[in-house]
Design goal:
Residues 23-86 form the SLH domain. By secondary structure, this protein is an alpha+beta fold. It has helices spanning 2-22, 35-45, 65-76, 84-96, 98-103, 108-114, 181-184; strands spanning 117-130, 146-159, 162-169, 173-174, 187-195, 204-212, 222-235, 239-247, 266-275, 281-289, 293-294, 304-305, 307-319, 322-334, 345-352, 375-384, 425-437, 440-451, 464-476. The protein has two domains: 2-113, no CATH class; 117-476, Beta Barrel (Porin), CATH 2.40.160. The strands form two sheets. A 16-stranded antiparallel β-barrel has the order 1-2-3-5-6-7-8-9-10-13-14-15-16-17-18-19. It has a two-stranded antiparallel ribbon with strand order 11-12. A hairpin with a 3-residue loop joins strand 7 and strand 8.
Length: 477
């Protein structure tokens, strides 16, 4: 009965989103009194289009939304010649016929370039399951197996070489939590300005709230909420420099809640990326962190450290039709206590097909949501010592879901793959993605978590922690 209910719910979710994808009919006529006719007529008279079909714009003819989108697309190619009033009119047309423009492969990026701003979004619905190996810990059940996440994206251009970006988001929320703040409230997890006009002598300068994308391929990282400054500079033909300084702590962190939020808790890094040839790029980096970290975010019995530093080497490349990512990080901890090692290390490798990669999955999708029918797969493995990464800097943390406390006994609550997915673990990760329809991706994920060094733990029955599964449907618009 349970399996049948799950299958029915998944079908409902799929068909519901498919319905949204196919509901719009681009060949439906634009009503005779629609404001778009007047707007296009004015822009035609101003010289933005030089005819329609037989090179004469027929202002008295009712046309389909598809035909109107073709006209709007032609107008958008001349936006640089428009005054403020005309740009506003073009932007309004672009938003009105956004789905039809997408159908014509007039990509959102092009719309952003021709207009001053753009709004989009992402909706994700996920079914999750797990198979814990430790006594006293039970599987996800009922509504806890489902969650959803909503994001609203804002992008725009302020002036020559200055762009802005913001994103409102909900946390991944279990079904039935709508009456709680984390079930309905949205927060600003991204808000930044990017200068591409030579500020500070750099090619780009990004200031504000962004993902923690300081260096490497994502073993050290965070998808959102890091207040930082990031700069990039090309050195010669084949070398790129990236500098980063940012605060990655946030209210509600499981570590040092009593510490004043004015404590810097910063990460500082510098990276050089070398283009070896058309297929391969090598990146080397050094980093420093002020973040106090203890066993609440490490898979150990007890211990902490006050600061850390280290170096990182990563590669991105192709072997035939396969994409390859690799990363190795070595850390040096200050004032380690308890069972925390002084010089922990970690590495990860990912192999698969699909789009060229710049970061580990699921940081980046393997498929283009605009291309129905395409699919891709990947296999990755990571092995990370305890303490390699400071609190909130684990790139694979929270990539699964499981209960955080055991029901009997002791131990399991201290070793959780949901909050500690990049600490004292060996993890096999498999994933497959397919574009079911335009703007809709289905993803299937599997992870197998094991403790790497059992001598740093207690209360566990063997090294196996959990196996986690996820079926996700994401809709982009």
């Amino acid at each position: 009965m349970k399996k049948t209910l799950i299958l029915v719910l998944i079908i409902i979710f799929t068909m519901g989103i498919f319905g949204a994808v196919f509901a719009a009919d681009p060949f439906t006529d634009v009503p005779a009194k629609h404001w778009a006719y007047d707007a296009v007529s004015k822009l035609s008279q101003a010289g933005f289009i030089d005819g329609y079909g037989d090179r004469t714009y027929r202002g008295d003819k009712v046309i389909s939304r598809y035909e109107m989108a073709i006209i709007v697309a032609r107008i958008m190619t001349k936006t640089d010649k428009a005054d403020a009033e005309q740009k506003a009119m073009i932007e309004k047309l672009a938003k009105e016929f956004a789905s039809e423009l997408e159908g014509l492969n007039v990509r959102v990026k092009a719309v952003e370039k021709k207009t001053n701003s753009w709004i989009g979004g992402e909706t994700r619905i996920t079914y999750r399951a797990d198979n814990p190996a430790q006594p006293g810990y039970h599987r996800l059940k009922a509504a806890d197996q489902f969650d959803w996440r909503q994001r609203i994206n804002f992008n725009g251009t302020i002036g020559a070489g200055v762009n802005w970006k913001a994103r409102l988001a909900t946390s991944p929320t279990k079904f039935g939590n709508s009456e709680y703040a984390n079930g309905s409230d949205m927060y600003l997890d991204i808000a930044n300005l990017t200068f591409q006009n030579g500020l500070l002598g750099m090619d780009t300068v990004r200031v504000g709230r962004s993902p923690l994308d300081a260096f490497g391929n994502g073993l050290f990282g965070k998808p959102m909420g890091a207040d930082n400054i990031k700069v990039t500079k090309k050195i010669g033909k084949s070398t790129d420099f990236t500098g980063f300084v940012g605060n990655i702590k946030y209210p509600g962190s499981p570590v040092a809640l009593s510490k004043a939020m004015s404590d810097p808790n910063t990460v500082t890094s510098g990276q050089l990326a070398f283009k070896l040839d058309k297929a391969w790029t090598l990146k080397t980096a050094a980093w420093w962190s002020d973040i106090v970290t203890d066993q609440s975010t490490m898979n150990i019995t007890s211990g902490s450290f006050t600061q850390s530093k280290g170096w990182d080497v990563s590669v991105v490349g192709k072997v035939g039709n396969l994409n390859v990512l690799g990363e190795y990080i070595a850390s040096d901890l200050s004032n380690p206590t308890g069972v925390v090692p002084h010089n922990p290390k970690g590495w990860a490798v990912q192999i698969g097909n699909g789009l060229p990669w710049g970061a580990f999955y699921p940081i980046l999708n393997m498929v283009d949501y605009r291309k129905p029918g395409t699919d891709a797969w990947m296999v990755s493995y990571r092995s990370v010592d305890a303490g390699t990464l400071p609190t909130n800097a684990g790139g694979f943390d929270t990539t699964c879901t499981s209960y955080t406390k055991n029901t009997i006994g002791s131990g399991w609550g201290d070793y959780n793959p949901y909050t500690k997915g990049t600490d004292n673990v060996n993890v096999l990760y498999l994933a497959y993605q397919k574009v079911l329809a335009k703007n809709m991706i289905m993803s299937m994920d599997y992870q197998n978590f094991k403790i790497k060094d059992m001598s740093l733990t207690s209360g566990l029955n063997g090294s196996k922690l959990d196996q986690t599964y996820a079926l996700k449907f994401e809709y982009f618009y």
